[in-house]
Amino acid sequence: MGARRTDMHRLQEVIRLHRLGKSSRRIARHLSMGRDTIREYLAVLSDAGLLEGPIDALPELDVLSGLVREHAASAAAETVTSTVDRWREEIVRMRAKGAGPTAIHDHLRVNQPEYAGSLSAIKRLCLRLERAEGPKAVDVAIPVETKPGQIAQVDFGYAGKRYDPERGILRKSWVFVMTLGFSRRFFCALVFDQRIETWIRLHVEAFEYFGGVPHVVVPDNLKAAVIRAAFTVDDDPVIQRSYRELARHYGFQIDPAPPRSPEKKGKVEAGVRYVKGNFLRTWESIDIHEDQKALRRWMGEIADRRSHGTTSRAPIELFEEHERGALIALPRARFELVVWKQARVHTDAHVQVDGAFYSAPWPLLHQEVWVRCSRHSIAIYHQDVHQVTHARVKRGQRSTVEEHLPEHRRDLRERSREHWIDRARSMATEVEHLVELIFAEDDVLTQLRRVQAIVTHLEGFPPERARAAARRALHFGCSDYRGIKNILKQGLDLEPLPDERKRAWSKGARFARKPTDPLFAHVE
Questions:
Q1: Closest-CA residue to 433 (of 374, 504, 500)
Q2: pLDDT tens digit string along 66-78?
Q3: pTM: predicted TM-score of the whole model, two decimal places
């Protein structure tokens, strides 16, 4: 018989009935116990000299409890030795390091050739060791008392599938809950995702619902709030940048709950259970819009006015009496949704954000940058240094700052014929005519690359030299990049042209000679 399973009051009744002269059969029937169990009790009590005596002087409960424990210990000593007792010291050492039964069993099985124990044997030994150790100080749950307006806890809970009218399908949904630690008043909403945009928006709605902001918010370690959790006291959690901006705007502090410690935010956990067990169990609609309206009504008429099990007061009463005035006042301007994202600068010197493309300085090619996304702008940062801010463009469109592209290559992105003709015209009419004639050389094969090379090269010289070089090229029918480059390189543009009376040219005229003519040998 075990001390944990034995009711000492029933054991007293066994002694009383025996002293009244009842047989073991009648005692067993009267107490709804097995006869073998009664015989075992009677034998132990007889050996201890506790069976005989007056009916009104029964043994004390602590005496009976000590007797049962002593008997259980002696019985355990007589049992067959466990197959893992040989490894007891090593098991104790591994348990002290935090290893569980499965980890201990796997370690012994791999590293000790003579080990032949079972996982069940390890579990039984660990349970006996745990009982022998008794409770530890860390096992004590310390209730946290919070002042009005001091703390709010936030979390998500699964809320089943609901109909999404935008997609026309059933989707998983979650209920967001923010609970004020003092009054237990909470705000909740149904959503289809836990993205950072949703997380930020729900905080703003919760603050506006309460009419103020708690001084400290305790979130769970979800990625929308905390990128990397703090696993030790000395380790700082990495807070999502968007969440930081929200906290700065409203003036609250963030205190993430430790990993795998739901008891550290028990008030919001209880709030999530209450919403799921009350509203979600009784509301049968699965339309997200109808559900939101019903949930908001339920918050005001039911959740706010219930008698809370811990405070024995209605949350709305405690809130109005003590908490509303203790909250941080809402700022004048509503928080503009800002989302921070990491992006990589692609080979075209652009980052992609929400299907649109925004340029970054080309030396950042292939590097990770942070992008601050607001409703109207996209700001790019590298190593916390601001690089550029773009106005938002539509999906599929590009926003490009010319200086972000390599100087000698940025112009190549312009593929319009009119663009290059306009650039040639800005230098001189002769350059314009040269470009138009080059474009007209072939009605099938595009001459864009040749024009790009010639125009960008001429732009590197004074307008007078560009004009003279174009005139000489037109005069001799030179239309290739190498020939024009050599005209400038050799300074032939500075020399006077031969008699032009017989070689008048005009816009649209054909070249007087072909580039292969021997007369052009000196410009190649």
A1: 504
A2: 787 777 666 555 4
A3: 0.54
